[in-house]
């Protein structure tokens, strides 16, 4: 290479280096400008996101936000000492209010304070762990498995991955009453309310309570209800007949008859018009309370002739103690058939009287409500008497259940074994009450297939809890636990005097029934 060529090459390299230097300076300025723009954009984006998050929290947790703002304003204007003194005085006042008049403290302040405490001190901290332990977190499918190989063995280890926020249901609110906590939870994609129904027992164990039931509030929101305290642990007293003496029969609302208390501490009313009720429970479960308490509550209507009570008592013991209360009474299967025939005859008479005129017959002294208390209904339909008598009895009960509602007939049956073989007309009772039963399958027979999964654990009712039962269906979206009022023997005898106006059975009237065509009547009054 000549000297001239060398000079040209060096000159070219110098020009190239100079050009690259200028390009580098230009790129540096561009990158610095882009970095500045990116920094500004990220800062603005984070600022907007932060403002949005703060605003969302303020709106969603407005009570906490207002409290924090009030505390900060107080500290700014009056200092911390006055705040401590004020909080001490308010706390002492609330404690005194709770001790002196808990009835007013609970609805006005107690439930709100307890709900706040339960949400932030209990459920916000522990509920995520309970949900994961009960299998209520949605996990990613196909998690990688790490294989560890040693000279002695080969093991596969799947790493434990903490669920993301969108994989774990979130607590959105807590309400707290005297005995229950209602925890509202928002579901995540991939879950259904039925998943929580199946995990109700596991959630109760995790919370350390006796009962837990799940209610669907929205397609993606459920309420997990925990029972902290059992308000039905003690027997429910029966109302005093003296207080009913001032009422007339017209004052009694037969569609809202006081029958006991609910698990929420409220009065339980049931209707004796417009439907028939089947009570199922093992021996000693307290079915007598469900028989006598409504009768006590409607005593003025019975006395004034607006309600006629008939009783079928195969054992001859349960209803016989209040024999004078019943307009008709039967013990044997033939007597029971005669009683049912008389009711059918009255039903036909009312049909002829009101057909084409009214769709729902009004209750009057001429046409009173006919209330049939059928104890041990399964015994007479399955075990006692000949086959023809049992079949005839089934037919007559079916007629009363299907045609009697609008004509003022109400049938209330009681059974120990609620199978379809024992009570063939079981499905004709729209209202069901399940007391303590022997097996889980009996709960489904009485209250429906999904009642147990939704918290109707009637097979777990204790033997010392006579009169406790579960209701489900016909207007009741979730299983409701109730306890019927306990009616002592003295009250039943006083009820006889109240209804008949005669002491020791003196002056009790005997109603003679016509002889039925299908079977002879005997022992019916």
UniProtKB/TrEMBL annotation:
InterPro entries: FtsK_dom (IPR002543), P-loop_NTPase (IPR027417). Residues 252-354 form the FtsK domain. The chain crosses the membrane at residues 36-54, 66-97. Pfam families: FtsK_SpoIIIE (PF01580). It comes from the Bacteria. Keywords: Membrane, Transmembrane, Transmembrane helix. This is FtsK/SpoIIIE domain-containing protein. It comes from Pseudonocardia hispaniensis.
């Amino acid at each position: 290479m000549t000297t001239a060529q060398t000079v040209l090459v060096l000159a070219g390299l110098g020009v190239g280096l100079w050009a690259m230097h200028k390009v580098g300076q230009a790129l540096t300025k561009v990158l610095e400008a882009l970095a500045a723009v990116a920094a500004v954009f990220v800062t603005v984006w984070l600022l907007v996101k932060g403002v949005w998050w703060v605003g969302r929290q303020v709106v969603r947790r407005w009570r906490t936000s207002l409290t924090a703002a009030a505390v900060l304003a107080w500290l700014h204007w009056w200092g911390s000492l006055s705040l401590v003194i004020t909080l001490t005085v308010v706390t002492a006042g609330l404690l005194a209010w709770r001790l002196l008049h808990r009835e007013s403290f609970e609805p006005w302040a107690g439930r709100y304070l307890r709900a706040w405490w339960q949400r932030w001190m209990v459920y916000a901290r522990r509920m995520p762990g309970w949900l994961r332990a009960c299998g209520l977190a949605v996990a990613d499918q196909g998690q990688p498995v790490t294989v560890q190989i040693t000279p002695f063995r080969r093991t596969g280890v799947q790493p434990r991955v903490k669920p993301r926020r969108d994989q774990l249901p979130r607590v959105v609110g807590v309400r707290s009453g005297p005995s229950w906590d209602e925890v509202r939870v928002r579901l995540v994609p991939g879950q259904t309310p039925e998943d929580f129904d199946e995990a109700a027992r596991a959630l109760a164990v995790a919370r350390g309570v006796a009962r837990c039931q799940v209610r669907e509030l929205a397609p993606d929101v459920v309420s997990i209800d925990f029972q902290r305290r059992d308000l039905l642990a003690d027997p429910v007293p029966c109302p005093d007949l003296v207080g009913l003496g001032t009422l007339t029969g017209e004052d009694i609302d037969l569609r809202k008859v006081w029958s006991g208390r609910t698990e929420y501490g409220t009065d339980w009313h049931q209707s004796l018009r417009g439907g028939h009720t089947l009570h199922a429970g093992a021996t000693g479960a307290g079915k007598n309370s469900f028989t006598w308490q409504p009768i006590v509550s409607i005593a003025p209507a019975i006395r004034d002739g607006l309600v006629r009570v008939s009783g079928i008592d195969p054992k001859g013991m349960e209803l016989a103690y209040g024999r004078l209360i019943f307009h008709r009474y039967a013990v044997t299967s033939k007597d029971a058939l005669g009683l049912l025939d008389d009711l059918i005859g009255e039903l036909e008479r009312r049909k002829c009287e009101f057909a084409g005129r009214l769709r729902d017959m009004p209750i009057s002294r001429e046409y009173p409500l006919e209330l049939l208390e059928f104890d041990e209904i399964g015994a007479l339909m399955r075990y006692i008497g000949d086959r023809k008598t049992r079949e005839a009895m089934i037919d007559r009960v079916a007629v009363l259940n299907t045609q009697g509602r609008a004509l003022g007939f109400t049938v209330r049956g009681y059974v120990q074994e609620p199978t379809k073989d024992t009570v063939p007309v079981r499905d004709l009772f729209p209202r069901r009450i399940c007391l303590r039963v022997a097996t889980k399958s009996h709960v489904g027979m009485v209250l429906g297939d999904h009642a147990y999964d939704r918290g109707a654990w009637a097979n777990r009712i204790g033997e010392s809890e006579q009169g406790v039962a579960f209701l489900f269906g016909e207007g009741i979206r979730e299983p409701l636990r109730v306890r019927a009022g306990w009616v002592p023997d003295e009250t039943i005898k006083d009820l006889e005097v109240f209804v008949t106006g005669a002491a020791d059975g003196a002056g009790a009237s005997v109603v003679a029934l016509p002889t039925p065509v299908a079977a002879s009547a005997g022992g019916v009054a």
